[in-house]
Write a structure and sequence with these properties.
This protein is of the alpha+beta class. Helices cover about 40% and strands about 20% of the residues. Strands 5-6-7-2-13-12 form a six-stranded mixed β-sheet.
């Protein structure tokens, strides 16, 4: 029996009847011949490897009255057939039809009486190119309380094989379930944790103090304090910059605005979703970045900013201020005692939606991410997973939901989420079927109704966009705008900017 961390529990607490916090992987595979039947093959693959896939075997045990965070146990009633499902797209089996089906499938909550995942084998896809191999897809949805994006990539590597037609692993399908704990037992643990919680809070406060001390010497944080001071124009603002001389001609870094501008997708979300996916050649993305002195992350943020600028301009809704993006930051170092949990924090960066020209947008994205990294390194964002577990869970849940409701009427803390997750560099296989795309499908919540997540896989960059269907009904136009931005950036870089 393992207890959820405070951050893991938060992803459960924030769910309601219209926001569902599971993260998903959409895999596209080529069917080598008619002998391979996708659904039986995938079910058999999971059955043979289920002993290696701990997140797929465990279910929740709640603590009465919300006095402590829930626990995971190895489900004594585990039923693989409940989780593995069979679907299909109608003829002609286009990618747009696949996107529509995915949007419907992810727009539903998980059943908390079972392990928090389901996997749909989707048949009926047309070949990617005329005369090419038949294709099928696998959509696996796993609740965010179970894993983060980096852990999801590790889990996928265990679910598939790195060579075709691999033999089943040793001890295939062998694992031991757990009996649910008694109510008295979990209440006793809750009482013990309640006693230790204040001491953990003091230690965390000391670590946060060290981070803030570093922040006081960080130029990017100092400039952010200046901007807060300017917005407050009061005694507190003066204190923030006491004793510091300012150079009025200094070229200040591009920090995100203190108040995010309004957009069509910053509003309460409905329970309905739109999904769109696109792919870019990874080698060309790297080449563009190298030629311009930028990283893949810089290019991804520039493409998202440029695509949003184009899409908003066409609608006549482009704000004068730059949009802001929440950028997830993985805290994994590779030596975690517990890999199947959330080790993630976040920073905020300005998107170059107010900048004209694709090369200039790339430079602005590079500067914005540099500053965001400086601020994150100095501030206590790395303490997020620990801080999330300090409060009494029932109280934290109430506060979290109140803040979410307040966020639906107040300005959004950021406009969108932009995430870039590194994926496998070598091909993965299901039997003799080769996986050709690894498309991320993330989540949205009030009042941020748009998420853009990018996943690298072998020789390409797969882009998954998820949005509220009522706020962004034309999501495919936005996806096309991101691709157009790359085409123009590539041409501009080749022409010397």
């Amino acid at each position: 029996m393992k207890q959820l961390s405070g951050l893991d529990s938060a992803f459960l607490d924030l769910e309601d009847d219209h926001q569902f916090l599971h993260v998903s992987q959409l895999l596209i595979l080529e069917r080598p011949d008619a002998d391979l039947e996708p659904y039986p093959a995938w079910r058999r693959q999971l059955a043979d490897r289920i002993h290696q896939l701990e997140p797929l075997r465990r279910r929740l045990v709640q603590v009465p009255f919300g006095l402590d965070h829930p626990y995971w146990i190895a489900d004594p009633d585990f039923d693989l057939d409940f989780h593995v499902r069979h679907s299909a797209v109608p003829p002609p089996g286009t990618d747009d039809q696949l996107d529509e089906l995915v949007a419907r499938l992810v727009a539903a909550p998980m059943d908390r009486e079972h392990p928090l995942w389901v996997s749909h084998v989707i048949e009926g896809l047309a070949p990617e190119e005329e005369g090419g191999a038949d294709r099928f897809a696998i959509l696996t949805m796993i609740h965010h309380s179970t894993i983060d994006g980096a852990a999801g990539a590790d889990l996928l590597a265990l679910m598939l094989d790195d060579v075709p037609d691999a033999e089943p692993p040793g001890h295939a399908g062998e694992w031991t379930s757990e009996a649910p704990p008694s109510t008295a037992g979990v209440l006793a643990r809750a009482a013990a944790n309640g006693v230790r919680r204040p001491a953990r809070g003091l230690l965390l406060a000391a670590r946060a103090g060290q981070s803030m001390a570093r922040a006081s010497r960080n130029p990017a944080v100092i400039d952010l304090a200046d901007r807060v001071r300017g917005s407050l124009r009061g005694p507190l603002g003066s204190v923030l910059n006491v004793g510091r001389e300012r150079d009025p001609d200094q070229d200040l870094p591009r920090l995100p605005p203190l108040v995010t501008p309004p957009t069509p997708f910053n509003a309460p979300v409905s329970r309905y979703r739109r999904f769109a996916h696109r792919a870019l050649p990874l080698a060309e993305v790297k080449a563009v970045g190298k030629e311009a002195g930028a990283t893949i992350n810089d290019v991804v943020v520039a493409l998202c900013g440029g695509g949003l600028r184009r899409w908003l301009l066409e609608r006549g809704e482009l704000p004068d201020q730059p949009l802001t993006a929440m950028i997830p930051v993985s805290l994994r170092e590779g030596d975690e005692d517990e890999p199947w949990t959330n080790r993630v924090s976040a920073t905020v960066a300005a998107l170059p939606t107010d900048v004209d020209g694709p090369v200039a947008r790339l430079r602005a994205a590079h500067d914005a991410l540099r500053v965001a990294k400086q601020v994150f390194a100095a501030m206590p964002g790395q303490l997020t997973p620990d801080a999330a577990g300090l409060g009494v869970p029932a109280t934290v849940t109430a506060v979290s939901r109140a803040l979410t409701r307040w966020g639906s009427v107040a300005p959004a803390p950021f406009n969108t989420v932009v995430s870039n997750v590194p994926g496998p560099r070598e091909p993965l296989y299901l039997g003799s079927a080769t996986m050709t795309h690894y498309i991320p499908v993330s989540a949205i919540a009030d009042p941020v109704g748009l998420n853009i997540t990018v996943q690298s896989y072998v020789d390409q960059l797969d882009i998954g966009l998820l949005a509220c269907a009522e706020l962004v009904p034309d999501l495919h136009d936005l996806a096309d705008a991101v691709v157009t931005e790359f085409d123009e950036l590539r041409a501009a870089v080749r022409d010397g900017g």
